[in-house]
Amino acid sequence: MNDWPHTDNDPDDELRMADSLIVKADAFLRKHHAADLRSAPNSHTEHIDDELPILTDVVTDFDDGIPLLDEVAPLPPDTPASAAAPPVSTAEAQARERATLVEHLVQIDTLIAREVEAWLCNELPQLLSRELDALSDRLRVETLAHLRATLLPTLSTHIASRLDEAGE
Predict the structure, then answer these.
(1) How far is it, in rounded angstroms, from Cα 89 to Cα 60?
(2) pLDDT tens digit sequence for 60-109
């Protein structure tokens, strides 16, 4: 029949358990709508069970006879997207918003990194070429100035001494 935990295969036990769940669900729904129902009193408001939790309460004690869902049943392929999404709590919605924000930040970071890399690939060779040309020009000018200051006098001295020896 189903996978509900039970001690024997008696269908009456399953029916009693189902009836118990229906009564608890009904009491829960009446409590959830208590504010609306109190504004228009009727026979339903007399039986509201204050011991049932509302959605903001944390339930810590579970009845062992009540089965808990461990997984979500797959939806048929023709189910519209709006029906496929389960109701979301505020905490889940905030967590999803944070996850979406993180995804967007990662995408932006990736986009920035790609743009920087593309810019460097296009612009850096031109910048390096200009700087290397300027360095080459400056190095040539400084080298010639240093040559004139240090090597030229030495060469002139050697040439003058050779000419003096040849002229004698």
Answers:
(1) 18
(2) 666 666 655 555 566 667 766 555 556 667 888 888 888 888 889 999 99
State the DSSP code for 1: -
The DSSP output letter for 77 is T
Report if pTM > 0.70. no
Q: Are the C-beta atoms of residues 49 and 41 closer than 8 Å to each other? A: no
Q: In the chain, which ranges are E strands?
A: none
For 21-65, how does the pLDDT look when each residue is reduced to its tens digit (9 = 90+)?
Answer: 888 877 777 776 664 555 555 544 444 555 555 566 555 666 666
Instruction: Determine contact, residues 48/28, Cβ cutoff 8 Å.
Output: no
Task: Give yes or no for a contact between 43 and 65, defined as CB atoms under 8 angstroms apart.
Answer: no
